[in-house]
Amino acid sequence: MKVVYPFVAVLLLALVAYLGVIAGLEYLFGVIIPYMSLLLFLVGFSWKIYDWVKSPVPFRIPTTCGQAKSLEWIKRNELESPSGFWGVFGRMSLEVLFFRSLFRNTKAELVPGPSLAYSSSKWLWMAGLLFHWSLLVIVLRHYRFFLAGVPGFVEFLESVDGFLQVTLPTLYITDLLLVIAVTFLVLRRLASAQMRIISLSTDYFPLFLILAIALSGISMRYLDKVDVVAIKVLVQGLVSFQFDAPGEIGGMFYVHLFLVCVLISYFPFSKLMHMGGIFLSPTRNLANNSREKRHINPWNPEVQYRTYAEYEEEFREKMVKADLPTEFPLPSEKEKI
Amino acid sequence: MTTNPPKLSELQLEYEQEASLLKGDSPGKEWLDIPVEFRDGNWCHAAKPNVIEDLGFNNPRKWSPEDEDWQLEDGWQKIVKNGMKERLDKFRSFKLFMDICVRCGACADKCHFFLGSGDPKNMPVVRQELMRSVYRHEFSWSGKIFKGLVGARPLSEEVLKEWFMYFHQCTECRRCSVFCPFGIDTAEVTLMGRELLNLVGTNINWISEPASNCNRTGNHLGIEPHTYKNVVESLAEDIEDQTGVTVNPTFNRKGAEILFITPSGDVFGDPGIYTMMGYMMLFEHIGLDYTLSTYASEGGNFGLFTSNQSMKKINAKMFHEAERLGVKWILGGECGHMWRVVHQYMDTMNGPADFLEEPVSPITGTKFRNATSTKMVHIAEFTADLIHQGKLKLDPRRNDHLKTTFHDSCNIARGMGMMEEPRYVLRNVCNNFNEMPDHTIREETFCCGSGSGLNTDEYMDVRMRGGFPRASAVKHVKDKYGVNALVAICAIDRASLPPLMNYWNPGVSVYGLHELVGNALVMEGEDERTEDLREDEMEDLESESTSREDDE
């Protein structure tokens, strides 16, 4: 059910766009929905970030994964236990660009003894990295639709991405990698009992959605070719806020576009917000220097603790008997009476 | 299982033969459909009514987790919901971690409780989902609309029971957060979870009572000032008996240069006391001008496992006492969660400590630049510096009867980043030191299985399972190198690892780092040493021809 529902949902969404265009709703799917979903994405994303940032970080809680700054002759690990800004910058860069923490991944196995054995396990890291980088390159490549000319960096990306020069039009490696990686990410959720039990429908849905977007895009490029010029006209119309009705483009394009719209509308309200959240994670983005520099908690509560005076008041007699120094002497016999 | 803990052979058989999610066997249903079952050994006693009252928490009553009816007060759901809202607004970590988990599964097999039990709800991601599912239901519109379809569920008594069980099967060791691509720390979730449990009077006594004691008497064990002094003095006498050297600890002494604070477990618990003896010998050896305090007589802080306010309250005594005594700075003993609090929370909560000076070692002149604001130095940093500057006379051969390995305490490794200092000290005070396998030490170290206030006898079943990954790694070096001494710099470890070793690896004893320092110290005017601080025979030093003078 956790798998079937999101799968069916994606199919239905694709069908909605396909049938909608057949029914002559190009304007809805080509103009209105893209604007609405972009708006939803921008507002939702910003709102979510604002909502997170509005909650303060009361304590400095980096997870230290290496030797901290200590005595001068002890070699410290600035990237795993940063002591200042540049260390944090390096640590975050590694995390965001190369998924440092996932790279550490191990697999634990119960072996006869019984005993535990650990081995390095980098499949998830590799698939995750391929998936995210391919997606980024593909998104950047789409930039060519937004401008009259084609910017240099896009041409560069395209030439690198298409270096294999097989098929016509040239096969983009990232298209292939993305599909492979996403498929792997789906299959690994299905393949192990641990992954099956932790996965929710909301884990499968974005995977299926992205896979469908990729496949519809690929089919337009390599199989059922669509009118790229018409698409460029439509997109540039959108970008320049001309609400002209789109020309004849073909159903597959609308499926592609609509699913992208669904994805970006869904984005701010889902786990996909990890894209923004990773930058805010207090266990990663803070320096491990809390004994060196005082971290301020804006809501530091007033707390009544038991003062030494109260303590001595209760134990003074016992303390005096035990020859422990006290602030005040015991009341003399006379005062007692 | 009939006994608590199960017989070793039974548990081994279970690990080898029974189906387990750890081995890839599916439990056959969703975790949501697996009921919570309290049985001997998997729950801790509820906090006593007077303790709850003393701490100012709700609904003091006599109850047990095994009861069908937990006698929750009317409207408890609202209390929890409001409590969640308040904490989401106060802690970015909590809010963020509720939102950004992608359930990639990297954490799944990183938790010692999962590795020791195979229980699906002990996968860190699911332990967080216990909370996240309620969060979605209450605080996200998608959860409100799609409910179970997106993993949302309402807060019920059954859910609260599940929280109680599994937020106490997390030792807040942060191992999962090392592997999480977003740094999600389950401890941040279970710390909040425990605060929420406290709000509705579902506390456990082994955490609440020490927190309450600590407030009144200054330490977790409820030891009053005269007794504290007596016990420390008797340890001083033991030192004199064994070494012929007189050490003179002072108490509550104004004008001392340094205030020394260590967990009360070092003063009252075996084998912690030998570590305490080690500290005192070291301080005598270098002529340190220090005092102990009967008021700030606890390094540990069970407030951390109760609520951020309790933590602040218990911690406040350190600075308060340091100011009253007029010391220059504070030196802290070997302890795990104490150092999480001192390193990551203390200055924020109870600072700034303007009345103290930036810490400088009076022996070596070394400035502890990493502690210039909090003004509290870890004993391993302090001793490592002494050794590095050649200020200690050490004979590591005196620990030749020990084949050591080193257990990184979770909080020291992952909450502080202290990995090398204790190893440096250890290498200088003993000749036989072997590391446990990769992935079980340093930032990937395994918890003893009893941290975060779970070190209680009725919890043996869970503790022995949770300690299995640590024990398994120790067994590896025991078999390979004949390791018989597990060295740790944590008072909870010193209390919890001995039963764990007895269970899994009989023959391995647990030592504090400064106990080994005490053994190795060559003190002025000492008698000939043939026994270590535990009165175990040292190896015969005379018969060994190789002299190791260069070791000093």
Feature tags:
heterodimer; A: 337 residues; mainly alpha; Fumarate Reductase Cytochrome B subunit; 2 domains; two-stranded antiparallel ribbon; elongated; B: 552 residues; Glutathione S-transferase Yfyf (Class Pi), Chain A, domain 2; Rossmann fold; 3 domains; 4-stranded parallel β-sheet; 3-stranded parallel β-sheet; 23 helices; globular; disordered C terminus
Distance between the termini of chain B: 52 Å
- Unreliable spans of chain B: 545-552
Percent range of helical residues of chain B: 40-55%
Order of helices and strands of chain A: HHHHEEHHHHHHHHHH
Query: From the helix content, strand content and strand pairing of chain A, which structural class follows?
Result: mainly alpha
Report how far apart the termini of chain A are.
82 Å
Instruction: Determine the oligomeric state from the structure.
Output: heterodimer
| Strand tally of chain A | 2
As for the CATH topology of the largest domain in chain A, it is Fumarate Reductase Cytochrome B subunit
Alpha-beta classification of chain B: mainly alpha
The number of strands of chain B is 7
Strand content of chain A: under 5%
- Name of the level-1 CATH class of the largest domain in chain A: Mainly Alpha
User: Please, how many domains of chain B?
Assistant: 3
Model description:
- The complex is a heterodimer of chains A (337) and B (552).
- Chain A folds into 2 domains: 4-303, Transmembrane di-heme cytochromes, Chain C (Fumarate Reductase Cytochrome B subunit, Up-down Bundle), CATH 1.20.950; 308-337, no CATH class.
- By secondary structure, chain A is mainly α.
- Chain A has helices spanning 4-22, 26-54, 85-98, 100-103, 123-141, 152-161, 173-191, 193-198, 201-223, 228-239, 251-266, 274-277, 308-321, 333-336; strands at residues 106-111, 115-120.
- Chain B is globular, with a radius of gyration of 24 Å.
- The longest helix of chain B is centred in the middle third of the chain and has 19 residues, at 225-243.
- Chain B has helices at 8-17, 49-55, 76-90, 92-99, 112-117, 124-139, 141-146, 157-166, 175-179, 186-199, 205-217, 225-243, 264-268, 272-286, 308-325, 337-350, 379-388, 410-414, 420-429, 460-466, 468-481, 491-504, 513-520, and strands spanning 258-261, 290-291, 329-332, 376-378, 404-407, 485-488, 509-512.
- In chain B, β6, α22 and β7 (509-512) form a beta-alpha-beta unit.
- Chain B folds into 3 domains: 20-203, no CATH class; 217-388, Up-down Bundle (Glutathione S-transferase Yfyf (Class Pi), Chain A, domain 2), CATH 1.20.1050; 396-551, 3-Layer(aba) Sandwich (Rossmann fold), CATH 3.40.50.
- Chains A and B meet through α2, β1, β2, α8 and α9 of A and α1, α3, α4, α6 and α9 of B.
